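ok new one. same drill as before - structure tokens go in, u give me an amino acid for every spot. 72 of them this time. try not to just spam alanines like last time pls lmao
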């Protein structure tokens, strides 16, 4: 019976190691996904800033154009 108990313990340790390896891989995958999301958000911020700049320029241009038309 002790030999059987020893095998059960070894099997349990093997299962626990495998579970830990799987959890470590999931953590690594999660970190990679978070980094990708942060990069995407950074690019989104850049895009929004570019659009905001274009809108501001368009508003300024439109205001100047209206002013010039009204002075004619």
């Amino acid at each position: 019976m002790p030999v059987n108990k020893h095998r059960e313990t070894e099997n349990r340790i093997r299962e626990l190691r495998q579970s830990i390896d799987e959890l470590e891989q999931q953590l690594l995958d999660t970190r990679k996904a978070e980094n990708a999301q942060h990069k995407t958000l950074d690019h989104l911020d850049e895009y929004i800033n570019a659009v905001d700049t274009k809108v501001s320029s368009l508003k300024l241009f439109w205001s100047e154009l209206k002013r010039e038309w009204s002075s004619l």
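The helical segments are 2-71. and btw The CA atoms of residues 48 and 54 lie 10 Å apart.
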